[in-house]
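ARCHIVE CARD
CATEGORY: sequence design from structure
SOURCE FIELD: tokenized fold
FIELD CONTENT:
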């Protein structure tokens, strides 16, 4: 296919980034009627009222200006207190915390801060769709650490060690995991911390699902001795507080990393919108009970989803966190794209083919259970019908 004159003017690095496997699918869904979507990784709850109200009130009071590049100091202080309470790690709100436009921006800033051309980033796979493109766009090279159903979709310290080369700069972790729902065992995480220290790696720890942990206790990399300085902790409000559209997240780490990230942020973004920051402040101050209630709902749905796959005869790893199930749909004899496409066409249920999250996602599908019990029940009735037609059971 010949490229248009203007397409040739697009930076080849950008040109070569493949379109997101999720987007591609949702373009299809948007053209259909009666679809139950278990595809998007987004809470089905509206942001709790007191958070919306706090934002409205801040607008009434005239809070419509730029904030400090770092974000509102009061919000950074609240984040520092939150991190101290949760992980027992202390961050100085004045130079070790940056408020960003979601975890998405924080991730991009971390990559651009750390990477030089050719630097490698280790990424457990299946992985969240933006990790590899963000690495590439920052000039780095993603190196995947495949995980599987057999090992509970967890990476091991040995696997990390074996993947390290003289170009390895960072390890990017996301547990509870998108798309598998896996959580890491603390002991293995401690061994990985040892490897990171041995090989002088920086860990980027995407903690966006930390509050959505249903089994055991979640551990963050920065809480291991010696790891605080070499970890860039990312978190935000999108998932735990049902605030995806507000676009607020943060990064916490040593002053050199966070200072450098702030330098990029101040020129590219200037600051995170004040409305979102005001809402985030209210979420941290008064949002815990509401957040816990939403998490209880997800947990109830989690049980329902795992049982539904069991009943269908489709092997499904029991997710310990986030709001995704990752069933092994290869038992139907279809590959992940065929499964997702045919299920959508025949039964109007949308989910994401596992290969959208990398090669080791092939044979699986990501099912979001951030949906109402009614929608989940109907979607599973339809899915069971489809799976039976494929000859399972
Ligand atoms: N990290 C992971 C693992 C995600 O699943 C998502 C959203 O789905 C993000 C980051 C983006 O979060 P935010 O809305 O804070 O930009």
């Amino acid at each position: 296919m010949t490229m248009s004159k203007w397409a040739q003017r697009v930076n080849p690095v950008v040109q070569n980034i493949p379109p997101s496997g999720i987007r591609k699918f949702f373009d299809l869904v948007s053209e259909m009627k009666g679809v139950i979507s278990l595809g998007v990784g987004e809470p089905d709850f509206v942001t709790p009222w007191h958070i919306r109200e706090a934002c409205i009130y801040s607008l009434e009071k005239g809070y419509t200006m730029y904030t400090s590049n770092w974000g509102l100091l009061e919000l950074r202080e609240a984040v520092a207190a939150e991190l101290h309470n949760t992980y027992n790690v202390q961050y100085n709100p004045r130079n070790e915390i940056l408020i960003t436009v979601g975890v998405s921006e924080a991730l991009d800033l971390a990559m651009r801060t750390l990477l030089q051309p050719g630097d490698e980033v280790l990424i457990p796979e299946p992985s969240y769709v933006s990790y590899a493109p963000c690495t590439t766009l920052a000039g780095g090279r993603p190196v995947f650490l495949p995980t599987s159903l057999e090992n509970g979709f967890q990476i091991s310290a040995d696997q990390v060690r074996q993947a390290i080369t003289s170009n390895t700069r960072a390890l990017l972790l996301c547990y509870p995991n998108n798309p598998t729902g896996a959580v890491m065992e603390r002991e293995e995480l401690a061994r990985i911390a040892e490897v990171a220290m041995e090989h002088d790696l920086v860990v980027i720890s995407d903690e966006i699902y930390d509050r959505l942990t249903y089994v055991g206790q979640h551990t963050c990399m920065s809480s291991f001795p010696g790891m605080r300085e070499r970890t860039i902790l990312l978190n935000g409000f999108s998932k735990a507080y049902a605030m995806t559209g507000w676009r607020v997240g943060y990064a916490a780490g040593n002053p050199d990393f966070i200072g450098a990230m702030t330098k990029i942020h101040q020129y590219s973004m200037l600051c995170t919108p004040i409305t979102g920051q005001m809402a985030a402040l209210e979420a941290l101050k008064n949002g815990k009970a509401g957040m816990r209630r939403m998490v209880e709902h997800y947990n109830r749905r989690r049980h329902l989803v795992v049982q539904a796959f069991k009943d269908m005869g489709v092997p499904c790893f029991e997710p310990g966190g986030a709001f995704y199930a990752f069933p092994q749909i290869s038992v139907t004899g279809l590959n992940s794209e065929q499964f997702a496409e045919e299920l959508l066409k025949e039964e109007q249920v949308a989910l994401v083919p596992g290969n959208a999250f990398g090669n080791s996602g092939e044979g699986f599908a990501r099912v979001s259970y951030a949906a109402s019990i009614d929608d989940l029940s109907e979607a599973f009735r339809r899915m069971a019908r489809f799976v039976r037609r494929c000859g399972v059971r």
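CARD ANNOTATION: The domain at 49-285 is CATH 3.40.640.10 (Aspartate Aminotransferase; domain 2). Residues 288-312 form the longest helix (25 residues).
SHELF: design records, drawer C
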